[in-house]
Amino acid sequence: MDVAEKRHWVLTEVSLVIRGRDLRPEEITPFLDVEPTGVRNPGPSKWDRPGEVDGQWKISCNERTSRDFHEQLDSILSIAERKRIELGQLAEQGYEVTVSLFGFSGNDSTLTLEPEEIKRIARLGFPLRVAASMSER
After folding, report:
1. For residues 120 and 77, is the Cβ–Cβ distance under 8 A?
2. CA geometry: angle at 102 spanning 97 and 104, to 5°?
3. 3-class DSSP state of 37
4. SS3 for 12?
5. Minimal CA–CA distance to 11: which of 79, 45, 46, 61?
6. How much is the pTM?
7. Is residue 95 predicted with pLDDT exceeding 70?
8. Minimal CA–CA distance to 58: which of 74, 80, 82?
9. Over the stretch 106-117, which tens digit does the pLDDT of each residue have?
10. By CB neighbour count within 10 A (0-12 exposed, 13-18 middle, 19+ buried), where does 6 fall?
């Protein structure tokens, strides 16, 4: 019996994202004392989905940082763990704080989280957002 090789998501990106209608990225950066990889001021944008008006501050790890999904996740979770108190304060102020996973997945491909990774995410107490593009890569 042939056992097919498992296919995994490709071109993954793991991010720590902070969103809010009144979010000013230039205030979040010094508060967290971390440089973002991307920011977006509140208001409409031609690059985002229609109706998307929230400001955004994020740190992302993708294939330019590491091609290994677990290394990307570890990097983002390490930052979030170091800044857990500050991120909690932002959440208390009404900002949405999430850990986001994205990648390209074809038929029968998988994205596996290790038990310790799930525990780390759960201990943070922020939502996990998973999004996949089903186009083949």
Report:
1. yes
2. 170
3. coil
4. strand
5. 61
6. 0.84
7. yes
8. 80
9. 777 788 899 999
10. exposed
